[in-house]
Specification:
A hairpin with a 3-residue loop joins strand 6 and strand 7. The strands form five sheets. A five-stranded parallel β-sheet has the order 4-3-2-8-17, with helices on one face. Strands 9-16-10-11-12 form a five-stranded parallel β-sheet, covered by helices on one side. By secondary structure, the chain is of the alpha/beta class. The chain has eleven helices and 22 strands. The protein is globular, with a radius of gyration of 24 Å.
Length: 456
């Protein structure tokens, strides 16, 4: 077994790990990136990009079927499932290839391949071929999909976000377990592509919405798109012909496939974290500072999905940069930096889209609320997409602290609000900006006026 020394060891070559490795190298540290595979980042391989490709195909089918409202006659819309999935994988593989190309540009002697396990607070073993001694380590091992217990003996009849994009054709029917962002996106996309879809979730939240008004709107909107069963827990599953029979309180049903969208816990088990001196919680995850990314009382940092704090790409990339830079500083005997966190920004790319800024609704905070509904919004009506609404939340002095939205193209409106919250703007200052007519952004102007006038 060969022996190697370095300043910084980065475990995991996903979004956070690559960012950490590049940052450490930029700081002049001797950094080694350890790749276990399959690589390509969660976002490009099984997350953001393939899901958006599937959603785009679904939107094209939906638009063709509903063009009649504009006086445009489209006859005989047919979804070619294998062609849809082939195109999705073609572009997905292109995005993954770009990631690998970027890795190939890194010096070969700064990369190792294999599974890393801690042997102590300053030593890693990579498979059986390398022992790596480090001064500081960054854990960026990502996450993996969880499968609820009733589904664990059903084999490939159960799909996860790691496998759903590999199917060769669309199933006739699909049960989706989980009504969070991923479950909602894929459920609606599959339904628009002609799949009979049922969504199950033991909770009453949909797409992360917490505002009571918007939650009700979301349930009404999406229950028209597919069979939505909130407050329903699947209790059992068994093979049924080529498919699956699921059972829940008060009912059962046959489905061609099941998609588990019940979350992605961090990949921290089996790393040997108990050998590092880190303080671990009941799930085996280390306690850490969410600003510096440093694990308490150690020379370890943790970033991206591995810390389960904000499992979103832009956060993972920034956390990786912070962790890599701080790891290099600590290895050089310098203090670590604790930059202020970005405002929380989360989105669901369903139609209508959903967005949450600053944590969204908090019923105990006593916030002032600015309201607007898209049902009467001019541009939304022109687009025949007049659904949902916006809720802005502010402190008593008018300073904006967050928002929730469900409506057409709110991904763009959410960025504007996130920047306003990040910059500490109050409602009056934010409203003293141009809002072009006729745009969806005018809905923000209306919500801000509502908040300022005290009608909320």
């Amino acid at each position: 077994m060969r022996e190697i020394d370095c300043d910084v060891a980065v475990i995991g070559a996903g979004t956070a790990g690559i960012a950490a490795h590049r940052a450490a190298l930029k700081e002049g540290a001797r950094s080694v990136l350890i790749e276990q595979g399959p690589g390509g980042t969660t976002c490009a391989r099984v997350g953001c990009m393939p899901s958006k490709l599937l959603i785009s195909a679904a939107e094209a089918a939906h638009a063709a079927r509903h063009a009649d409202v504009f006086g445009v006659r489209v006859e005989g819309v047919r979804v070619d499932g294998p062609a849809v999935l082939k195109r999705m994988r073609h572009f997905r593989d292109d995005f993954v290839g770009s990631v690998f190309q970027g890795l190939d540009d890194l010096p070969a002697d700064t990369r190792l391949t294999g599974r890393a396990v801690f042997e102590g607070p300053e030593t890693l073993r990579i498979d059986d071929h390398t022992r790596l001694r480090f001064k500081v380590a960054v854990i960026a091992t990502g996450s993996s999909p969880s499968v609820p217990k009733p589904l664990r003996d059903l084999g490939d009849r159960v799909l996860t976000t790691d496998t759903v994009f590999e199917i060769e054709d669309l199933p006739d029917s699909l049960a989706v377990l989980g009504a969070g962002p991923v479950g909602l996106e894929l459920a609606q996309a599959m339904a628009r592509l002609g799949v009979r879809v049922s969504v199950f979730d033991p909770g009453d939240s949909l797409g992360g919405l917490r505002d009571p008004d918007l939650s009700r709107a979301g349930r009404e909107i999406f229950s028209q798109a597919f069979d939505l069963r909130l407050g329903t827990e699947v209790e059992a599953g068994e093979p049924d012909g080529e498919g699956v029979r699921l059972s829940w309180k008060g009912g059962s049903g046959h489905f061609t496939r099941v998609l588990s969208a019940a979350g992605r816990p961090p990949n921290v088990h089996g790393l040997g974290l108990g050998e590092t001196g880190a303080t671990l919680d009941e799930r085996g995850s280390p306690a850490f500072d969410p600003r510096s990314q440093r694990c308490e009382g150690t020379a370890l940092f943790i970033a991206g999905d591995a810390n389960a704090d904000r499992p979103i790409l832009h956060e993972a990339s920034r956390q990786g940069r912070i962790a890599g830079r701080n790891a290099a500083r600590l290895a050089a005997g310098e203090g670590v930096e604790r930059p202020e966190r970005w405002v929380m920004l989360a989105m669901v790319f369903s139609q209508p889209q959903i967005a949450s800024i600053g944590g969204g609704f908090d019923g105990e905070a006593g916030h002032r609320v600015g309201r607007v509904d898209f049902c009467d919004q001019g541009r939304a009506r022109v687009m025949d997409r007049a659904q949902g609404g916006i809720r802005l939340y502010a402190e008593p002095d008018g300073r904006l602290v967050g928002a929730e939205m469900i409506g057409p193209e709110v991904e763009h409106l959410a960025h504007l609000v996130a920047h306003a919250v990040q910059d500490g703007l109050d409602a009056k200052t934010f409203r003293d900006r141009p809002f072009y007519h006729p745009t969806l952004e005018e809905a923000l102007d209306t919500a801000l006026a509502n908040l300022i006038e005290g009608d909320g």
